[in-house]
Design a protein that fits this description.
The chain is α/β, with parallel strands linked by helices and 232 residues long. The chain contains eight helices and six strands; from the N terminus they run H-H-H-E-E-H-H-E-H-E-H-E-H-E. Strands 4-3-5-2-1-6 form a six-stranded mixed β-sheet, with helices on both faces. Helix 6 links the parallel strand 3 and strand 4.
């Protein structure tokens, strides 16, 4: 039903009584969490719901239950058979997209490529337009290295990978700027000039977001295909 002021509850394993303790990481807790996501996704596929909202999920518990995903984004990507996805985190008007997500810092550099960054910028642009109704979004792209590499003196990923990706999307009509040195960018509150920011790795984007809006932040997984329209 769709009655105002009522919450519809979908029972997992109806009439069973799970042994789940508060703040306790267990195989059973992970199984229930994983099944809840799977069932919600299936309801979405069947057009029975318009969106999915999840509570925080313990990745350790999911792993104990046999799920081999490092987060919601990766799990929903597999369920919907979509490779090109973007984790987008929002705290009021501060929006952060991530080029790489839940991987060790030692793997970030070899995971980045011009093609990957182009895909992430394009998805971010599309999500800002379609989901947030921003007609001409302005996107800032962060560098990977300290001081954005200082013209190759502290790493050359900005020269080899990030700048060419920005130039490519600009030619496609996307308003993109960068790469910016992350510390100065956030320290001077430059993010206020843009509709969204693309960070190169998890903590680069999430630390400032959680400092600014720890209690209001939320994340959305954007994919933008015909159906499912969005994985959110």
């Amino acid at each position: 039903t769709n009655t105002p002021n009522e919450l519809n509850v979908f029972h997992l394993r109806k009439f069973q009584h799970p042994i789940i303790g508060p703040a306790s990481i267990s195989k059973e807790a992970g199984a229930y969490a994983g099944e809840a996501i799977e069932i919600a996704a299936e309801l979405f596929k069947q057009n029975l719901v318009d969106g999915i909202v999840t509570a925080p999920v313990s990745k350790e518990a999911l792993k104990k239950a046999g799920y081999r995903f490092t987060g919601h984004t990766e799990m929903l990507s597999k369920i919907f058979d979509i490779e090109n996805v973007l984790m987008l985190l929002i705290a009021n008007k501060f929006r952060i997209g991530l080029a790489t997500i839940h991987i060790p810092l030692s793997k970030v550099v070899r995971s980045l490529s011009k093609e990957l960054i182009i895909k992430k910028i394009t998805l971010l642009h599309t999500s800002l337009r379609n989901d947030l109704a921003i007609r001409t979004p302005r996107i800032a792209i962060l560098g990977l290295n300290p001081h954005a590499g200082e013209n190759g003196n502290i790493g050359n990923e900005e020269i080899r990978i990030i700048t060419p990706a920005i130039q490519f999307v600009k030619r496609k009509g996307i308003i993109a700027y960068g790469p910016f040195s992350a510390d100065g960018f956030f320290g001077t509150h430059a993010y206020k000039k843009y509709d969204a920011v693309l960070a190169m790795y998890h903590d680069q984007g999430l630390i400032p977001l959680k400092m600014l809006g720890f209690n209001v932040g939320r994340f959305a997984d954007s994919s933008h295909v015909s159906r499912p329209r969005d994985c959110i």
